[in-house]
């Protein structure tokens, strides 16, 4: 398991690169869940990035210079996913950073709705609770369903239910949404 300081160091390194390259991003996954739902131990960093294909080769070079070892990008849930391991720290396992390339109407919409928050010592845009619910419903693993229930319970009446219903319908996950709300 990667120590928490290694997780924050990797997050800081990737956020500085994205800021320097002016690549919009938002934090997703377990770290975002700890903001909107229930705290869950996580060993990786999930980020959505608005990176155009023509900028990808240079970005991969930048990652290597900063001690990130990227795998080959692969499709996941209709997105292009790039898994990287941050190899700079010397103790514990490497930190895994999952980069989802936000291409298409819904991922770009989710990026626009992200909220600027402080995570540790970092200022980072975090996926909205509604969009985190939608992404988790798209993944539809047992753990994701539990996460969605936790977000719904913690956020309660603050959730924008009309936004959730509209996008769930467009994404084809209305029945899953009804099952958790």
DSSP strand tally: 8
CATH class of the largest domain: Alpha Beta
Category by helix and strand content:
alpha+beta
Please give the largest β-sheet: 6 strands, mixed
Run of helices and strands:
HEHEHEEEEHEEHHHH
Compute the average pLDDT: 89
Strand portion: 15-25%
CATH architecture of the largest domain: 2-Layer Sandwich
Q: In angstroms, what is the radius of gyration?
A: 16 Å
What does this 3D model show about the protein?
The protein has 181 residues and is an alpha+beta fold. The chain folds into two domains: 1-104 and 115-127, Beta Polymerase, domain 2, CATH 3.30.460.40; 128-181, no CATH class. 48% of the residues lie in helices and 23% in strands. The protein has helices at residues 4-20, 29-36, 56-65, 105-113, 129-139, 142-155, 161-171, 174-180, and strands spanning 25-28, 44-49, 68-70, 74-76, 79-86, 95-101, 115-119, 122-126. The strands form two sheets. Strands 1, 2, 3, 4, 5 and 6 form a six-stranded mixed β-sheet that branches. Strands 7-8 form a two-stranded antiparallel ribbon. Helix 5 (129-139) packs antiparallel against helix 6, helix 5 runs parallel beside helix 7 (161-171) and helix 7 (161-171) packs antiparallel against helix 8 (174-180). It is globular, with a radius of gyration of 16 Å.
Map the helices and strands.
Blueprint: H1 4-20, E1 25-28, H2 29-36, E2 44-49, H3 56-65, E3 68-70, E4 74-76, E5 79-86, E6 95-101, H4 105-113, E7 115-119, E8 122-126, H5 129-139, H6 142-155, H7 161-171, H8 174-180
Parallel strand pairs: 2-6
Antiparallel strand pairs: 1-2, 3-5, 4-5, 5-6, 7-8
Helix pairs in contact: 5-6, 5-7, 7-8
């Amino acid at each position: 398991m990667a120590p928490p300081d290694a997780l924050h160091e990797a997050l800081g390194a990737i956020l500085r690169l994205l800021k320097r390259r002016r690549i919009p991003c938002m934090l997703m996954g377990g770290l975002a869940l700890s903001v909107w739902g229930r705290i869950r131990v996580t060993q990786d960093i999930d980020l959505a990035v608005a990176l155009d294909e023509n900028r990808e080769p240079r970005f991969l070079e930048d990652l290597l210079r900063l001690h990130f070892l990227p795998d080959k990008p692969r499709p996941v849930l209709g997105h292009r996913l790039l898994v990287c391991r941050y190899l700079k720290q010397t103790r514990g396992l490497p930190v895994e950073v999952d980069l989802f390339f936000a291409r298409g109407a819904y991922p770009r919409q989710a990026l626009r709705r992200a909220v600027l928050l402080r995570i540790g010592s970092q200022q980072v845009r975090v996926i909205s609770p509604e969009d985190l619910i939608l992404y988790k419903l798209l993944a539809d693993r047992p753990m994701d369903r539990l996460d969605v229930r936790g977000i719904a319970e913690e956020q309660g009446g603050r959730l924008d239910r009309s936004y959730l219903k509209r996008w769930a319908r467009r994404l084809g996950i209305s029945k899953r949404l009804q099952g958790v709300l």
